[in-house]
Write a structure and sequence with these properties.
By secondary structure, this protein is an alpha/beta fold. The chain is built from 8 helices and 12 strands.
């Protein structure tokens, strides 16, 4: 049975992200899709291609969150060290996985370079999660899911295994407000105190758009979210100019 209020951490691995050479779209995608599936993302971290750094992050987040998803650093080259970092973070040896070896040999054929088998070196106890929609399985070690860094591959693999993350969906709403944050900050605090199971967000808009502020309410209890939105509408009065995006 799926957990009703699961949490997640996303760990992006890559020197190229930290140097600004590559724009990270993977964490944005994962955060959006996990939220769509009812998972609350609590942490996003970007770490270098460095085994101790990866290990430290995995060791810190794996016990704290329902799911940990990594992206990047899973190829056959010297700088692909995510598997080693995950193994160290979970205090497990890195071993040659027989099933992963067979998959790699089948894909590359008889003329395969020996370096390809480096991708079969996985943390002990790793599970290969397969799907008819992907050529290579997704690697899972307990609650840690290891995804590639290439966005199109990551997205294909995530969609193939998304059922493992599905939970009670969020309910929510958006209010368009003609006010500045200081004008309504006290009121928002009062409403938030009444609905502690609902997350109220306040987002000032860029100059030139038709509305100055967007307010959001989100939670797992649809009735509580509806009551919270009703309280916001009542208290905002003429400052409320509509619902939904500007």
């Amino acid at each position: 049975m799926a957990e009703t209020d699961p949490t997640a951490a996303v760990v992006v691995v890559g020197d190229e992200v930290l140097s600004g050479r590559i724009e990270d779209s993977n964490s944005l995608y994962l955060c959006r899709r996990l939220t769509d599936l009812g998972v609350t993302v609590r942490r996003v971290a970007v770490v270098p291609d460095d085994v101790p750094a990866i290990a430290a992050e995995v060791a810190a987040v794996a016990p704290r969150f329902t799911h940990v998803l990594t992206s990047g650093g899973v190829g056959p080259t010297h700088d692909d060290v995510t598997m080693e970092g995950v193994a160290k973070g979970l205090a497990r040896p890195l071993v040659r996985h027989p099933e992963a070896t067979a998959v790699i040999r089948k894909f590359y054929g008889p003329h395969m370079a020996d370096a390809a088998l480096r991708m079969a070196d996985l943390p002990e106890g790793a599970e290969l999660v397969t799907s008819e929609h992907i050529r290579f399985p997704v690697i899972r070690i307990d609650n840690v899911w290891v995804f590639p860094g290439s966005p199109h591959l990551l997205q294909a693999k995530f969609e193939a295994v998304k059922g493992h993350f599905e939970s009670t969906p969020f309910a929510g709403g958006v209010l368009r407000v003609d006010a500045s944050e200081p004008e309504i900050a006290g009121f928002l605090s009062q409403v938030q105190a009444r609905f502690d199971g609902v997350a109220i967000g306040s987002y000032p808009q860029e100059p030139g758009v038709p509305v100055r502020l967007l307010l959001t309410a989100r939670g797992k209890d649809a009735e509580a979210v509806a009551a919270c939105l009703a309280a916001l509408k009542e208290g905002l009065g003429e400052k409320l100019v509509g619902e939904g995006p500007p």
